[in-house]
Amino acid sequence: MTNKKTAKTGNSASPQTNRAQKSRPQNNRAQNSRTLNNRAQSSHTQKSNAAASGSSLMPLLLVVIFLAGLIGAAQQHMLPYGIAGMYLTLSLLTFIAYAIDKSAAKRGKWRTKESTLHLLALMGGWPGALFAQNVLRHKSVKASFRNVFWLTVVANLAVLGYGIKTGAVDMFI
Q1: Tens of pLDDT, residues 117-143
Q2: DSSP letter (8 states) at residue 54
């Protein structure tokens, strides 16, 4: 004996099988909806973390003021031009290193070591690193990286201040 639904549709599956098949797409839709919600929450969390990590104009303003101050001090003969040139060169190299690392991260390729990025910042490339973190949105969320980065900035500025105070920067003239 055949079921009326089976006779009309030509499908020999039982009504229970038909119900199970109909409920699967709904389960898939619910799962897809949860996945999309998780992605949206993750994206929102990343954006708020980026905002909390200082992706405003303040760090960029700090970079511009610092570099302008170095150039101004060099023009007033308070600081050798070599120091200003060293900061500008290292900042450019550090920015390029961040850009290469960001590109490698996107492609899943070999990455630049964090210690290398920190060393470049410590040597005087921190303005370029800070600029790259904000413009490229790279290494701007990871708290442990940011903490070590700001320590390298403070250490670099302390050495620069000590060199200016003791006259050690005069050997660059």
Answers
A1: 999 999 999 999 999 998 888 777 788
A2: T
Which helix or strand (DSSP H or E) is residue 125 part of?
Answer: none
What's the pTM value of the predicted model, to 2 decimals?
0.64
Position 16 scores a pLDDT of 55
Mind listing the pLDDT tens digit for each residue in 17-76?
Answer: 555 555 455 555 555 555 545 544 544 444 444 444 445 788 889 999 999 999 999 999
Give 72-76's long-range contacts (Cβ < 8 A, gap of 24+).
none
Pick from 118, 113, 116, 126: which is nearest to 153 by CA?
126
What torsion, rounded to 10 degrees, do the Cα atoms 36, 41, 46, 49 define?
180
Tell me the C-alpha to C-alpha distance, in Å, between residue 48 and each of 17, 55, 147, 154, 166: 46, 10, 18, 26, 43
Spatial CB neighbours of 52, under 8 Å, sequence gap ≥ 6 = none
What sign does the dihedral 86-87-92-94 (CA atoms) show? positive
Helix (H, G, I), strand (E, B) or coil at 159: helix
Least confidently predicted of 9-13, 45-49, 165-169: 45-49
Calculate the CA 38 to chain-centre distance: 21
Max alpha carbon distance in the chain (Å)? 104
From CA 67, how far away is CA 51, in angstroms rounded? 24
